[in-house]
From TrEMBL:
This is Semaphorin-4D-like isoform X4. Its main location: membrane. GO terms for molecular function: chemorepellent activity; semaphorin receptor binding. GO terms for biological process: axon guidance; negative regulation of transcription by RNA polymerase II; neural crest cell migration; ossification involved in bone maturation; positive regulation of cell migration; semaphorin-plexin signaling pathway. It comes from the Eukaryota. SMART domains: IG, PSI, Sema. Keywords: Developmental protein, Differentiation, Disulfide bond, Glycoprotein, Immunoglobulin domain, Membrane, Neurogenesis, Phosphoprotein, Signal, Transmembrane, Transmembrane helix. The gene is LOC113038994. InterPro entries: Ig-like_dom (IPR007110), Ig-like_dom_sf (IPR036179), Ig-like_fold (IPR013783), Ig_sub (IPR003599), Immunoglobulin_dom (IPR013151), Plexin_repeat (IPR002165), PSI (IPR016201), Semap_dom (IPR001627). The keyword Phosphoprotein applies. Pfam families: ig, PSI, Sema.
């Protein structure tokens, strides 16, 4: 799909009333209004912060990759055989679905040198383009897979025998079945031995096509017209069995999902529109009109927007169809973003299949207009619609009219289909808006599973993959979105390009990327160490077992459900009372004066507020303590007034209640030196500067200069008497938080001479600054001890 600048999108905001402004300022003015709208969108809608975040090494993941093999993005799960088929660059793998790190079989499918040379002559890259990227892996029958690859920009298909895992050398032309370009958008689905594809039909990628190919029939395809397909980016296709037990004798339908350039409106930029298109499985094309073309092709706008803010998510990236025993109960889920630059907003919208059926069976048609100087190029068709209804599948009513196939449809109906492929009525989302909106996250893939909780309630658990290799697990609870967790599936930040779920509840999820395949459990219940954590997670897969005192996956254990504890409302009050942490159990921390103390607090919930208390009083970051991003507490240059009882408390709101827990307790004490001449302290603050200890005679004094100006205020100082005429001096300075770079100079002055130390502090990110403070303070402590030992050693040898 082409990339469009944010300027291209400005025309779409035509419903905004703007004051007359100079053309030179217009772009900035419209962009300013648009950015303001983004800020409003980011604070509205059903957004959710993941409660738990797991790094790649925190959880048990299984991976598969091999050297010099890339693009593991075509996945096919065969639960009957217990295997996962993976199509990558020039290879097909058969992996164990319970452990993808175990490879059972593989097939190498390289491109002959003659075809590579031809590809290079056409201007393509030998290292990347002129290879064979496997893009189609579909089950043909119980013993055969249908496989297609880009084959150096000459797509080729063949049959893969599952007995010996070899190609049957029945190569077929892959045009219309598989893309030429490995980077081009593409989708396919096998339905009853026939391959339905959405791809490009030519080398340049300029002729989009939705097609059906089979051994028994010639290729059936879309009309080559921008009215039918206009620069589409295909994302998904699947069959809906609407013909099963249909009282109207209806046919099964194949639905396609894609984003294309709008044909309804014409501006100075290209406006993108997400679409849902439909064809009938029994379509045979027309007798005279639309020969070997779809007679049932229709498309409609797929809306995902926030109407109250007039904000539209107009690019669909992936679709998942959550099927039900009856097709009317099927729900379609899609992930969307906006075309207007990198705004960092993603949305998940859901659609009832019954609403989709209503649009295609009863919706109004659109037709082209020839009005000049108008942005609107298509309007509602208000004339008389031919009969049978254009685009409809052959039904029992048609058969009673002696129309038993599309070959018998009248030319008037077929000509109408050819000229009016676009429906006016859009497909609207459930609730008229997104189920989920995220900020600073770009969703790329989606999978959904229907899960029954212990109380019998049914929930749709939404798994979404991002362009940074992360996985989010979310669900809608009592009208609000709750994101259970965020998992770093991929070691490196790269897009998840395929997401696949096992049909067995609470089994596995598989993610494909350019670098490999990752297998993940659908739940990490064992990561919750307490009943409160288990319940507050609000994960329908998980429940607390009092007998084993552990959080269990309810679908993988035989525990009595009546004795398990689960509350998707997050009511942790139903948990048994846990033994409180007593002071005698607090961890003892012994720190030297002037050293730093790092007190960790392992709170894994991103929704919890962490409070630190010292001797029962709540600490703030305004003084000498630094609260770390991982909820720990850093105390630098510890003084006697810093000693005492430290407690880390977690406060988390859920179900209209606040749940408070004592997470960690510490007893901080000073390890005082044997001989201290004087210790003076200054009220500390949020930043500190520590210099190496200075040595010298007893008359030594310390002066501080900040940016060349002498500091008159009394400064904290530590002296260690080493001998009758030597003393070790360490001085440190605390100041308010920095807002600019600062140079500090510490001068030790005595009758014996002068020594100067300098340090320059530059503003940096919070995490980097904290890490540098830790290093500096550790170095300070180490150096202090080294000097002390050195002086004591010299004194013991009679040198001093």
């Amino acid at each position: 799909m082409n990339r469009y600048s944010s300027l291209d999108a400005m025309a779409f905001k035509g419903n905004l009333t703007l004051p007359k402004i100079p053309e030179s300022n217009m772009a900035l003015s419209v962009l300013g209004m648009f950015l303001g709208l983004l800020l409003e969108v980011s604070t509205h809608g059903p957004s959710s912060v993941p409660r738990s975040s797991w790094r790649h090494d925190d959880v048990d993941l299984l991976e598969f990759w091999e050297p010099d093999v890339f693009n593991y993005t075509t996945l096919l799960l065969s639960e009957e055989r217990g295997v996962l088929y993976v199509g990558a660059r020039e290879v097909v793998y058969e992996l164990n679905m319970s452990n993808v790190s175990i490879k059972s079989k593989q097939l190498l499918w390289k491109v002959p040198e003659s075809d590579v040379s031809m590809c290079i002559l056409k201007g393509k890259s030998k290292e990347t383009d002129c290879r064979n990227y496997i893009r189609v892996l579909q089950v043909l029958d119980e013993d055969t897979l249908y496989v297609c690859g880009t084959h150096a920009f000459q797509p080729l298909c063949d049959y893969l025998s599952l007995q010996d895992f070899c190609l049957q050398d029945r190569a077929e032309d892959g045009r219309g079945k598989c893309s030429f370009d490995p980077a081009q958008s593409f989708t396919s689905v096998m339905v009853d031995g026939e391959l339905y594809s959405g791809t490009a039909y030519n080398f340049l990628g300029s002729e989009p096509i939705i097609s059906r190919s089979s051994l028994s029939q010639s290729l059936l395809r879309t009309e080559y017209s921008t009215s039918w397909l206009n620069e589409p980016s295909f994302v998904f296709a699947d069959v809906i069995r609407e013909g099963q037990d249909s009282p109207e004798g209806d046919d099964d339908k194949i639905y396609y999902f894609f984003t294309e350039v709008s044909v309804e409106y014409e501006f100075f930029g290209k406006l993108l529109i997400p679409r849902i298109a439909r064809v009938c499985k029994g379509d045979l094309g027309g007798q005279r009109t639309l020969q070997k073309k779809w007679t049932s092709f229709m498309k409609a706008k797929l809306v995902c927007s926030m109407p109250e803010l007039n904000f539209v998510f107009n690019v669909v990236h992936d679709v998942f169809i959550l099927k039900a025993p009856h097709w009317r109960d099927t729900v379609i889920y899609g992930v969307f973003t906006s075309q207007w630059g990198n705004v960092g907003l993603s949305a998940v919208c859901a659609y009832n299949m019954s609403s989709v059926h209503e649009v295609f069976s009863k919706g109004k048609y659109m037709q082209k207009v020839t009005v000049e100087q108008s942005h609107t190029k298509w309007v509602r068709f208000n004339g008389i619609t031919p009969s049978p209804r254009p685009g409809a599948c052959i039904s029992s009513l048609n058969r009673r009219q002696n129309i038993t196939s599309s070959l018998q449809l009248p030319d008037k109906t077929l000509q109408f289909v050819k000229d009016h492929p676009l429906l006016e009525d859009p497909v609207l989302p459930i609730g008229n808006g997104p189920r989920l909106v995220t900020k600073d996250v770009n969703y790329t893939q989606i999978a959904v599973q229907r899960v029954q909780a212990l109380d019998g309630s049914i929930h749709h658990v939404i798994f979404t993959g991002t362009d940074k290799g992360l996985l989010h697990k979310s669900l809608v609870l009592e009208g609000e979105v709750h994101t259970v967790e965020e998992i770093q599936l991929l070691k490196n930040p790269e897009p998840i390009k395929t997401l696949l779920l096992s049909s067995q509840v609470a089994r596995f999820l598989y993610a494909g990327s350019d670098s490999g395949v990752v297998q993940s459990p659908t739940a990490f219940c064992e990561k919750y160490p307490s009943c409160v954590d288990c319940v507050l997670a609000r994960d329908p897969y998980c429940a607390w077992d009092p007998r084993s005192a552990s959080c269990l996956n309810i679908f993988q254990h035989d525990a009595d459900p009546r004795k398990l504890i689960q509350s998707l409302k997050g009511d942790a009050g139903i948990c048994p009372t846990a033994a409180p942490l007593v002071v005698s159990d607090y961890q003892q921390v012994l720190v030297k004066p002037g050293a730093s103390a790092d007190l960790p607090c392992p709170v894994r919930s991103n929704l919890a507020q962490v409070l630190w208390k010292l001797n029962g009083r709540v600490l703030t970051e305004a003084s000498r303590f630094l609260l770390l991003s991982e909820n720990g507490l850093l105390i630098y240059s510890v003084t006697p007034e810093d000693t005492g009882r430290y407690e880390c408390w977690s406060v988390e709101a859920s179900g209209g209640q606040n749940f408070t827990r004592l997470v960690m307790g510490y007893m901080l004490r000073l390890e005082l030196p044997e001989s201290v001449t004087s210790v003076s302290t200054l009220r500390p603050s949020s930043t500190a500067s520590t210099l190496p200890p200075q040595e010298g005679p007893r008359d030594v004094s310390v002066e501080w200069h900040i940016n060349g100006q002498k500091l008159e205020t009394r400064v904290a100082e530590y002296r260690q008497v080493v001998s009758h005429d030597a003393v070790l001096v360490s001085s440190w300075l605390r100041e308010e938080a920095l807002n600019k770079d600062v140079q500090y100079e510490c001068t030790a002055v005595s009758a014996a001479g002068t020594d100067v130390s300098r340090v320059e502090l530059r503003l940096d990110s919070r995490d980097e600054a904290v890490e540098r403070w830790r290093t500096a303070l550790t170095d300070h402590d180490t150096l202090l001890q080294q000097w002390k030992k050195a002086w004591e050693s010299c004194d013991g040898q009679g040198v001093l």
